[in-house]
Design brief:
By secondary structure, the chain is mainly alpha-helical. The protein has 21 helices and four strands. Helix 5 packs antiparallel against helix 6, helix 5 packs antiparallel against helix 20 and helix 17 packs antiparallel against helix 21. It is globular, with a radius of gyration of 24 Å. The two termini are about 30 Å apart.
Length: about 500
């Protein structure tokens, strides 16, 4: 086919706003009506918009509630009953100096379980229907959450948290692959942000819900009903997921044939490869030769340090500023809101304007660096300033969310994408292990070493994001010079990786 006929052919294809980013020429026009790769399969922009709205309703916006329950339970005697915190002295003004090492270990072991479970769950998600693997794992971890109420020793809670992490490791890597085959590369950042912001939403509403649950009068210790009730809710939700969450767009019965044709055409334009149940050894090995794997993994790891620390020690740190138990719980609500708003904001920005994801990562990291410095060296008698610092630290969660979206958008080939996704969440686990550990090893209520370590990690995020941006920009330019204008020259059946597909251009 000549260059001219390629252009004429391309102009007949459906090109809406969600596709412009994947075109090397960054076309500014949007055609109202397009034609799929097969002559006669036509659909309008309105039809595609209706399909996207339908897909969004299927979006699993389940919040990251369960793993954060332990932080709220600390305000109802959880640490004292299980002997996770001990007082080792007092400050000059009489405030207790605490050793929280056991508590940080109980948080850390969750991510050890997550780490151990990541690759087995990746294997299951590729070889069996993803939606069914997710729903079964959700059912089992709901049961584990309920069993937390039966823990009475340090050993018991460590085992309980390990298995909770093992089971929850299903969701994040599976969703990163899942979103690839339902939304276009330009749509993925916002959809990933919607999913990732559930961490913030959970933090916004859960403290007050948990406080209410902690007021339940029963023969049980005050923190136990929290785990029993919320674990039961998770089990119910797993049943909803089993019946409501679709799997492959190529096989689901919840799409009409006309909708399925649109989905297939969108997949072809996505240049992401097919949905394959077959393990591709070459793609697996290629993933570990690709610097994008290490870049995204490190960004997620390094943002996971302050994120994991806030998730585990948030209420404890605020309590150390001089607030009582209820205020400590209530004040985590606006922190969750800031997290959710910042994630949605960067998702909207990167959806509306092209190639700003790495820029947003740098900006969010710089804002949070300011917050860590305030909490690290700020005056201890200024509670308002210290609390504002915690606010700013929370913004960095959105940088981690963008790194997750970059895995979905910048890696093609089913096995490679699954491998990179799983590896980045290994980074997530390691970061969330390091964060609570450095805070646990730093005496409360000041936690100087914890905030200093978080500051250093975020500085590294800035450097990695800038270097990766430069390398990917150069790679896109190199492909443009060698191959010229990008065209949709491959079908989804080919399942090519991004490094093997000359039509692939990286999102910046």
């Amino acid at each position: 086919m000549s260059p001219l006929s390629e252009k004429e052919h391309a102009e007949r294809r459906p090109i809406d706003e969600a596709m412009k980013e994947t075109m090397a020429v960054e076309a500014e026009r949007v055609d109202d009506v397009g034609t799929s790769k097969s002559e006669g399969d036509t659909f309008s922009l309105d039809e595609e918009k209706r399909l996207v709205r339908k897909l969004d309703l299927w979006h699993d916006n389940r919040s990251s509630y369960d793993k954060g329950i332990m932080s709220a339970a600390t305000q109802f005697g959880f640490n004292d009953d299980l002997k996770l915190t001990t007082i080792v002295g007092h400050t000059a003004d009489g405030k207790p100096i605490t050793d929280n090492q056991r508590y940080s270990n109980a948080s850390m072991i969750f991510y050890i379980g997550y780490l151990v479970g990541t690759y087995p769950m990746m294997y299951l998600s590729q070889h069996y229907p993803t939606s069914k693997v997710i729903s079964l794992a959700t059912f089992l971890w709901g049961a584990v959450v309920m069993s937390t109420a039966g823990c009475s020793t340090y050993t018991g809670i460590m085992l309980n948290r390990f298995f909770l992490g093992f089971l929850e490791s299903t969701v994040a890597p599976a969703f990163t692959v899942f979103v690839t085959f339902w939304w276009t590369r330009k749509e993925q950042a916002l959809r990933t942000s919607l999913w990732y912001c559930c961490v913030g939403l959970a933090t916004t509403f859960s403290p007050l819900i948990n406080y209410g649950l902690g007021q339940i009068k029963s023969s049980l210790l005050a923190w136990k009903p929290i785990f029993l009730i919320l674990g039961a809710v998770t089990i119910v939700w797993s049943v909803v997921l089993f019946f409501a969450l679709p799997d492959s767009p190529l096989t689901t019965k919840r799409l009409t044939e006309s909708e399925r044709k649109i989905v297939i055409r969108r997949l072809e334009q996505n240049q992401a490869g097919t949905i394959s149940r077959k393990f591709n050894k070459d793609q697996f090995l290629e993933a570990f030769r690709d610097y994008k794997l290490y870049s995204c993994s490190l960004i997620i790891l390094l943002t996971g340090v302050p994120s994991g620390a806030l998730g585990t020690f948030g209420t404890v740190v605020i309590n150390g500023f001089g607030f009582d138990h209820f205020d400590s719980l209530a004040l985590t609500c606006p922190i969750g809101a800031i997290t959710a708003i910042s994630i949605l904001a960067v998702g909207f920005i990167t959806r509306k304007w092209n190639n700003l994801r790495y820029v947003c990562i740098v900006v969010c990291a710089l804002i949070s660096i300011t917050g860590t410095v305030i909490c690290w060296v700020g005056p201890r008698d200024d509670r308002g300033l210290l609390f504002a610092g915690v606010f700013l630290v929370a913004v960095q969660v959105s940088a981690g969310g963008l790194a997750v979206s970059l895995v979905a958008s910048n890696v093609a080939g089913h096995t490679k994408k699954a491998t990179v996704s799983a590896t980045t969440f290994v980074g997530y686990c390691v970061g969330n292990v390091i964060g609570p550990e450095i805070f646990g090893a730093s005496p409360g209520p000041v936690y100087h070493a914890g905030f200093m370590g978080s500051c250093i990690c975020l500085c590294c995020v800035v450097v990695i994001a800038i270097v990766t941006y430069i390398l990917l920009r150069r790679e896109n330019g190199k492909r443009d010079r060698i191959y010229g204008e990008r065209v949709d020259s491959h079908s989804i059946e080919e399942d090519l990786s991004d490094m093997k597909n000359e039509a692939f251009r990286y999102v910046l």
